[in-house]
């Protein structure tokens, strides 16, 4: 299975970027997934711009009026996204950042950060930065 890109929204990927196998990117109507230059996205990565809100009564499935959260996802230039990462809507990953394998990104990650975990949080800031 190759990677899957779907939805009525917009997905843009800049030059010299890579998206690994078995990844999926969902761009819901009116939402945008932006992938900057020189971004490496590993295998089995999931990026969604719309998700069901957890705090609701799913037993009311009959009327299909679930509540959702939606928003853009932005991955700035020179980022590295590890394998099996999930990135939810309304998230920006700052320039030159790393998201470690098996992480769930629920909040913005600042530039030059190394982040990981469930939910992902900054583990440390990069110390070897050429200005």
Question: Which features would summarize this protein structure in a list?
Answer:
mainly beta, 5-stranded parallel beta sheet, 131 residues, 17 strands
Please provide a written account of the structure.
The protein is an all-beta fold and 131 residues long. It has no helices and 17 strands. The strands form 4 sheets. Strands 3-6-11-14-16-17 form a 6-stranded mixed β-sheet, with no helix packed on it. A 5-stranded parallel β-sheet has the order 1-4-7-12-15, with no helix packed on it. A 4-stranded parallel β-sheet has the order 2-5-10-13, with no helix packed on it. Strand 16 and strand 17 (121-125) form a beta hairpin. The chain is globular and about 55 Å long. The mean pLDDT is 93.
Low-confidence stretches: none
- Order of helical and strand elements: EEEEEEEEEEEEEEEEE
* Strands, total number: 17
> Which strand-content bin applies to the residues?
35-45%
| Biggest sheet: strand arrangement | 3-6-11-14-16-17
């Amino acid at each position: 299975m190759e990677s899957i890109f779907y939805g009525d929204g917009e997905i843009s990927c800049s030059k010299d970027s890579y998206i690994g196998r078995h990844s999926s990117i969902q761009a819901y109507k009116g939402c945008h997934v932006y992938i900057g230059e020189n971004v490496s996205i590993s295998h089995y990565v999931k990026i969604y711009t719309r998700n069901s809100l957890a705090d609701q009564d799913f037993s009311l499935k009959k009327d299909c009026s679930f509540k959702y959260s939606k928003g853009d996802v932005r991955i700035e230039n020179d980022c590295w996204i590890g394998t099996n990462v999930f990135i939810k809507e309304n998230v920006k990953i700052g320039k030159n950042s790393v998201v470690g394998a098996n992480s769930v990104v629920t909040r913005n990650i600042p530039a030059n950060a190394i982040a990981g975990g469930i939910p992902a949080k900054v583990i440390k800031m990069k110390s070897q930065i050429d200005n």
